[in-house]
Amino acid sequence: MRRTLREKWALLVGPVLIFLGWELLSRTEVIRSTFFPPPTEIVSRGVIVFDAESGLGDDIIATVLRILATIALAVLIGVAVGIAITASQWLERGTNTLLVFLYPIPGVLFFPFLTFLLGRTEMAIILTALVTPLIVMVLYTVAGVRSIDRTLLEVADNYGSRGARRFFGILIPGALPSIVTGIRVSLGFTLIAVIAIEMVGASNGLGQFLWSSWQILRVTDMYVALLIIAVLGLLSSVGFDSVADRMLPWRRNVQGAQV
Amino acid sequence: MSPSVRRWAHTWTIPVVVLVLWEMSTRSGLLDPRFFPPLSDILVTAVDELINGRLGLDLVLTLQRLLAAFALAAVFGVAIGVASGRWRTVELLIRPITDTLYPLPKIALLPLFIIIFGRGEVAYIVTAFATGFFQIIISTRGTVRDMPTDLIEAGRNFGATGTRFFTRLLFPAIAPELLNGLRLGMATCLITLIAAEFVGAEFGLGAMIRRAGQQFAVEEVYAGIVLTGLLGLLINLAFRLVTPLVLPWQRQAQRADGGQNV
Amino acid sequence: MSATSTPKVRLTDVAKQFPGREKVTALEGISLDIAESEFVSIVGPSGCGKSTLLRLVAGLYEPTSGTVEIESSKPDRPKTAMVFQEHALFPWMSVRENVMFGPRNRNVPKKEAAEIADEQLARLGLARFGDFFPHQLSGGMKQRVGIARALAQDAEVLLMDEPLGALDAQTRTLLQEQILELRQQTKPTVLYITHAIDEAVFLSDRVVLMSARPGRISDIIELDFGPDRTPELRGTPEFAALSQDIWNHLRDEVQAAMAADDR
């Protein structure tokens, strides 16, 4: 989106005001600095990321790896299952009912169950985090295939496209805009799930760091963790969007499902 | 088979088959009943807990928190969302804040909120509120911005200015999408609330599931999960019922395209 | 048209019903022969089943009763190649890849298929645009790509479903002339659907008139302008007279169709 210079400046006003306001109010104790440490303090504390002793750097890596593993599985399995489902109305409508029921259940609720089965392992964490993103990928993939212009499918039939060629040459590219939107949404859910699980049941990771900082009331450390999580969140939304738009220039506003 | 019967069959066959297979394979021991309790046991446990146990209390608490969180999120979210969609200055001001905070998992804010608000109800309500709040702002401002300009110009031309612009033109025009955004907002409030309760609360549906998990009470864990799902369904149902009342001019030409609105 | 040899396309008493709460009879009692290199247009009111008919010939639908036969001149030659009204190019493929689509599906090697594609694109005046993507093209250009794609198939029969319907009048006129040229170059067998009577008269050897739903053939008009006609044909009095004549035949059917829409 082309922005005028004026508009660009306007965007900065809000954050700057908040930053300055917060700094001022906190330093003068108008708001309790124990609850709301001044931003400068938070930022300077942020260097512990590079401090081997705090382990925060390792926590960040652990969280990111979990997110990547989960989203990769969600996409691979979800897209494959999603496209397979569209072959039959029975499958499509039936699984839709199940998935729509399961969707609003926070993935972290499945953690106890998966620890029963697998113990407190990395696998249990990833499988738990996988639940909601997987559902989302299947739903968006199905919607994506459904959104393919009927004419294109008729062309495919008339010109003899079948089997793997049809799958990889028509169905996947056609469903791709919706699938990409699905990945974006799934990334958000993955982040939520991983952090939540780390808060309750992991030995490392940003969520775990947040939790232990809380236990020992290191509020500034908590804010550092939150800041980093927010950055991860931004990367997975805004960052993802700019990459996606570049890769799919024909990405019309095909909204197979709603966000 | 007529089309509507066929549709119905498509929708419900597989879920019913899954439920039946579950019951059969857990009863026969094919699936280990320690990890996969039979459906009937889950149901019995749920009912038992409701009558004799704390489940009723937990549910009521969760519902109260949900309604409080949603009410706040709806009122403030719509207000700010409309302002943001209508006036560019407002949008530019708050956009960096909303776009940064929206992708942040609000569950991560729970510990902070507990420090600030103590261990009472407020922390959980605020956490759930936060999720719904940003969600509703974003969906509302998108809806307002997408209002067809022709409609606005026509309305203005026929005298809908000032407050009338909002009551006679804007809100009726965005009402269907607004309602849908509210439905999604309430659903996300629920998800965050249950997760927050699971992570840190003593009472509430989410808390009950955690407690049950710690005691290896498998049936109760499942019962809790199922109830959460049912609450989600309830929200959708409630909105589906309310919509024709609020939007009488919308013919129910909308089929139940479940997965299209997630 | 005498049928001294077997017709290229033969429809015998074809009917098509669509199931549903109320069964819809789209077509009834359609019998039609199309000879090789003949250009036959179908005109009729909206909803009369023209598109259904085309899809029956394409094999996309099965007739409820009756038969559709297409004569094969070569064993592996595709029976039909369709040209659609719009949204028919794959947005993720380049122009050349779109035109190569048919041959590639028959496992023609990439290089050969690309050559075929470029040949057809050149024929449609689009030689420079092979690497472009559909979203970069105008409506007229996209339709020409669609025609090039159909020609690349080298099918027995060319089926065109209102190919010029979504274009503005000037582009439409130009493309009509291009189609005429193509006719003279490659002499395909064509079944062509259009709403525009003048278009049908301009391009065809015969015009089939259909009735409102349920679609039946209400009349067949023979045109003897011959395959070597020129665009000047449009200015002739015979052209105007024929067009008017066909419209007179059609007017009642169109009104009947409009009345049926006021349910």
CATH C-level class of the largest domain in chain C: Alpha Beta
Q: What's the CATH topology name of chain B? A: MetI-like fold
Count of the domains of chain C: 2
What is the residue-averaged pLDDT of chain C? 90
User: What fraction strand of chain C?
Assistant: 15-25%
Number of strands of chain C: 9
Query: Which CATH class of chain B?
Result: Mainly Alpha
By CATH, the topology of the largest domain in chain C is Rossmann fold
> What is the string of helix and strand elements of chain B?
HHHHHHHHHH
* Structural class label of chain C: alpha/beta
Q: What is the CA-based Rg of chain C, rounded? A: 18 Å
Strand order of the largest sheet of chain C: 5-6-7-3-8-9
Low-confidence stretches of chain C: none
Features:
heterotrimer, B: mainly alpha, MetI-like fold, globular, C: 263 residues, alpha/beta, 6-stranded mixed sheet, 7 helices
Secondary structure blueprint with pairings:
The complex is a heterotrimer of chains A (259), B (262) and C (263).
Chain A: H1 5-27, H2 39-45, H3 56-85, H4 89-102, H5 111-118, H6 122-146, H7 150-158, H8 163-201, H9 206-215, H10 219-247
Helix pairs in contact in A: 2-10, 3-6, 3-8, 3-9, 4-6, 5-6, 6-8, 8-9, 8-10, 9-10
Chain B: H1 3-27, H2 39-52, H3 55-86, H4 88-101, H5 110-117, H6 121-145, H7 149-157, H8 163-200, H9 205-214, H10 218-246
Chain C: E1 9-18, E2 24-34, E3 39-43, H1 50-58, E4 65-70, E5 80-83, H2 95-105, H3 110-123, H4 139-153, E6 157-161, H5 169-186, E7 189-193, H6 197-203, E8 206-210, E9 217-222, H7 237-261
Parallel strand pairs in C: 3-7, 3-8, 5-6, 6-7
Antiparallel strand pairs in C: 1-2, 1-4, 8-9
Helix pairs in contact in C: 2-3, 2-4, 3-4, 6-7
